[in-house]
Amino acid sequence: MVDLEADVAVVGAGAAGLSLALRLARPPAGAVRLDTVLLAAPPGPARTPPRTWCFWEQGGGPYDEALTASWRRLRVRGADGTAVTAGITPLRYKMLRSDAFEALAARALANGPVSRVEATVARITPVPDGALVHARRADGEGVVVRARWVFDSRPLPRLPPARTTLLQHFRGWFVRTARPEFDPSVVELMDFRTPQPAHGLSFGYVLPVGPHEALVEYTEFSRRVLERVEYDRALRDYAERLLGVRGFEVTACEQGVIPMTDADLPRQTATGVFRIGACAGATRPSTGYTFSAVQRQTGAVADALHGGRHPLPPRPHSARARLMDSVLLHALDRGRVDGPAFFTRLFREVPAPRLLRFLDGRTSLPEDLGIGAHVPVTAMLTSALTLPLAPRRFPPAA
Questions:
Q1: By its UniProt entry, which Pfam families does this protein fall under (predicted)?
Q2: Which fold has domain 4-50+97-159+264-306?
């Protein structure tokens, strides 16, 4: 039995699901109104814990009212402590917390063509002219939604085989201090003074939201995640020994794992059923940044739906960008490049706005070649030549 019928069903209310729902709620003039059901997991283990997204863009953006903070300067510290501080004008580096984004979305979706249903999706079944989404509410009641188009943003249960898969895993503390300890004008983007793991790299990350408050994170690129006690030990060492911050109060925590993989992530699983967001390739494999690519991908999907076209989500990153990322991942995984030295050199020698556009996949071929002059050529060429010989394997569980 079908409980709800809609033109579009969006599964998941994270960055991708909410971004698509918001775009569908605001059709352009003359576009067909699309009845949409947003299926969000109820409070509990199926709901993703609160998280922070960071991205950069020029000027104002559609989510500015929900931002925690934004900055025009970034800093990278090499393993020897040498600091590179750069302005990124006309860009701004923006910090958006998921709870603020959800509140913004709730206001924007109220009384519109998007209906929110709190239920955990169990399966999606293709049927003629669409699909059935089978879900269960928190009280155990089942609900079935029939839609012409279904967009699934849930994390994949298992990644496809890849030549290289590393994990970007992190834990962060929101801290408050009695004395002014932070410079709220600059983000500590990558601080490589942290002890480096035997395989991969690590760095500290500081988002100061005021002189007394900041999000302080410890991040690793490696093959395995750590135990919580290991993250906390590394965080305390970074905050106290390297940042010199003492007597702080931890007001909240966040933790996550972002797969950095050159796997081919399918964007369509059945007729009328698609994936969007990180599970459809929105994460940039070389950096882990996802939010900006989600906006491009969901914007293209909404434009196609409103225009009556087939809404296959586009690949958010170009073939050239994906190839460069595959080579870099391969080089990092094989230990051919020193990760801290690699990223520090890029930020030291390439103008920061251009480098951020490069990391966002928005540079031209001549610009990419110019940036390539600042990487270890022999190591990258070796990785490029050996990459096609590397077998694709299923990555081990995190």
A1: Lycopene_cycl
A2: FAD/NAD(P)-binding domain (3.50.50)
